Amino acid sequence: MDNTTKISTELNLLNWQVKNVLDMMSEDNTVHFIARYRKEKTGNLDENEIRSVIELNEKIVKLEKARESAIKNIDEQGKLTEELKSKILACKTIQEVEDIYEPYKRTRKTKADVAMEKGFGVVSKQIRFQQALNIPKHLLEKYSKEEIISGAQDIISQEIADNPSLKEFVRSQYFSYGIISSKFKKLDEKAEKESYKFEIYRSFSQNINKLKSYQILALNRGEDLNILSVSLEKDEVFFERFEKRLIKSPQNQDLLKPSVKEGYNKIFSSIEREVRSKIRDVAEEDAIKVFQENLKNLLMLKPHYNSSILAVDPGFRTGCKICVLDKNGTPKKFSKFYIEKGEDAKRIIESLISEVDVVVVGNGTGSDEAQKILSEFNKPIIVMNESGASVYSTSKIGNEEFPNLDATERGTVSIGRRYIDSLSELVKVPVTSIGVGMYQHDITQKQLEQKLKETVEDVVNLVGINVNSASPYLLSYISGLNIRSAIKIFEKRPYKSREELGKVLSKKAFEQSIGFLRVPQSSEELDNTAVHPEQYELARIIINHLKQDVNSYIDELKKLNSDVTIEIVNDIIENIRNSKKEFRENEGILSRKKSLKIEDLSEGDIIEGVIRNVTQFGAFVDIGIKNDALIHISHLANKFVKDPLEVVSIGEEVRAKVIAIDVEKGRVNLSLKEV
Which helix (H) or strand (E) holds 620? Predict the structure, then answer.
């Protein structure tokens, strides 16, 4: 079975769909270009379906390389047989290859290897197959009986540990019925301070198939912090079954039992690592999916153009940094006020606030106190999530964008600009610093960054970018572009048409990117749509027949392009009609009428807020107090909820009931039930 057939079978696609995707990717086409402009060749596959084809193909290629490597290395050792080669080629997973290859990877001699060299193999077979013990005289002349038997037992335990079928027997048991448990270690002073966060795992056990992803990540973090001892519990009842597989009669069982136990323990240690690795991978995959969905919803927040802004980065010790941004988001004036100096603070604010339409305040330390002062000036107050602003302010990107501003000023500008256009600002911040995930620092960073990069690319290419106003950092996420070509575009703007971009970009980069770039200043109306220039001739005919049924003029279109289909025509029509559509529709803004403290709340209150983060165990809501309130998954709806993202999303405005308040810890619990 070739790779195309394997992929189409596993993903339930047609062979031609898979073949065309792989062929187009080999020709340096991007996922977004294929999904948007080659629908007829993929059967209308979307970006995620195309990525699934690519990822599965990479997985198959990786398996093929693992097989080839194992066969080559075993052959070089002079130990390859046709039977062994056939077994390796029949492996369907890399783990199966590893099970067979493991004995041939060792670079140092084991006790079993030494025993075999001494000739103890014949005795090991007598014990292993429970035959009468008859140690050859020539061995007894050189070695003691105890040494011979001990060496024979080493051989048996190693053979058991290396046996692929026995490994699979143990693996199947623990992957189906294994239990992960944890307990507190003896804590040092540093670990003691953090231990309260892991109290529920002090004495914890759960079947691996019932473990929640956030529990797995929490256990791993507790282990990394040297607070928890986490392990896969040994199943003694199962060991008895394992033992019975190998011990068939009473003869020599006293000699065989220790070898069986030692071999089992070696397998168990290996399987424990596999189980821990597997559940970690699953947990990371789930966490990344949550992170991706949260990030997508955050990037899809509705922009607010044409407003002058007073941006405020709140703080106590270093004061509240403020900046006036004009309607284009350009910083014009900077100042600072201190919360504790009330009258002086009001005087500073009063000197600037008449120049702006709206006040945008970060949600960091001192935000509530700053809002209380700002609320006296009768201007709309918007609270923005400032996660990652400080990271941006000291980054290379921040320094390149505002070389004449200091870090605190850059951070303040970033907070204000997020209200204008969250997408344009957040692409400048490392995605792991945006603060919309779960245990992001415990996830494999390379995988997380790749998946989040894909999410940003999806949003940027869905929305389309004004080439004359976008930053190079935003442009770099466009299909077919990288930071180098994005800077090149940026430095040669403004553009009066898409055609002019053809003089800046290579032919391939132009083809892959141009449909996602908008030129509002162009005299060609199609330059400000998602219609690709290669479709312009078709589009002009379609525009003249917009009120007619497609079937009435499809033949005229086929004269221009014999491959045109009804689906392609409908896609062009949709792109024309959506030319002025703003795809980012989620408000995600918490407008403050007055400052709120946790002491102002009472159980039973109905309160409004905005979802700031969604995790597997619930959602966090900004209700205007210092800490976000939690809606536990059990309180998201009047029905069972498996995935919180099915019910709520970042940026969504909600009305919820206050069901619990802990003033000392600053925690509030909410419910969406009965509201």
Answer: strand 618-622
Closest CA to 425 of 377, 488, 474: 474
Q: Is the pLDDT of residue 1 over 80?
A: no
Residues 333 and 283 in one domain: no
Residues 146 and 240 in one domain: yes
Same domain, 133 and 91: no
Domain extent at residue 659: 596-671
Q: Is residue 227 a contact partner of residue 185, using CB atoms and an 8 Å limit? A: yes
Q: Mean pLDDT over all residues of the chain?
A: 92
d(CA 19, CA 41): 10
CATH number of the domain that 485 lies in? 1.10.150.310
| Domain membership flag for residue 207 | yes
- Tell me what pLDDT residue 595 has: 63
Whole-number pLDDT of residue 550? 83
Of 608, 599, 549, residue with least CA distance to 573: 549
Q: What is the pTM of this model?
A: 0.84
Read off the CATH number of the domain in which 241 is found: 1.10.3500.10
Residues 98 and 124 in one domain: no
DSSP-derived pairing of the beta strands 629-632 and 667-671? parallel
* Matching residue, tokens 């966060």: 197
Dihedral sign for Cα atoms in the order 351, 357, 359, 360: negative
pLDDT at residue 593, rounded to an integer? 57
| Residue 480 to residue 486: CA distance in whole angstroms | 10
117 CB contacts (<8 Å, ≥6 apart)? none
Task: Give the pLDDT confidence of 421-463 residue by residue, as tens digits.
Answer: 999 999 999 887 887 777 777 888 888 889 999 999 999 999 9
551 versus 476: which is more confidently predicted? 476
